[in-house]
Specification:
It is a single chain. The protein is 67% helix and 0% strand. It has 141 residues and is mainly α. It starts with 5 loop residues before the first helix and ends in a 5-residue tail after the last helix.
Length: 141
């Protein structure tokens, strides 16, 4: 084994960066599900980590997007808030479909943008749920 060249080192850094960003994304999904009351969750928070499994994640991303949308809707209903059919679901579904179509040139860019928008939307809903919980239970930390 020799020393790593610049290209190999660059590849390791880029792949490490991608993995790190992916971990932060999955933490957001997991924390969103943790924020939702257990009776309103359609999926256990730790199950989002199955998205790290190559090829399985293609199908499982549809399941996660649906579960988060339904869970958010259930939690909003608990507080009497009327929301879209499934919050963040439409952009998440678009992201999943576009991910499959990413082999087509330039679709990957749109997929990436949808992924960022979905991530932001889920985080916004998580923060709104926390706000609702705090407003309804002043003793909650």
């Amino acid at each position: 084994m020799g020393n790593l060249g610049f290209q190999e080192l660059l590849l390791i850094v880029v792949l490490g960066g991608i993995l790190l960003v992916g971990i932060f994304y999955l933490l957001t999904l997991q924390n969103t599900l943790k924020t939702i009351s257990p009776e309103n969750r359609k999926m256990e928070p730790g199950n989002v980590w199955f998205l790290l499994i190559p090829l399985v994640n293609i199908v499982y991303s549809f399941i996660v997007v649906d579960a988060i949308g339904v869970s958010l809707k259930n939690e909003y209903e608990k507080y009497g808030v009327v929301t879209a059919e499934k919050p963040a679901y439409n952009i998440g579904l678009a992201m999943c479909i576009l991910n499959i179509l990413s082999v087509i040139p330039f679709v990957g860019i749109v997929t990436f943008l949808c992924w960022i928008i979905y991530w932001v939307k889920v985080n916004e809903h998580k923060n709104e749920i926390i706000r609702l919980q705090n407003a309804n239970d002043p003793l909650r930390l």
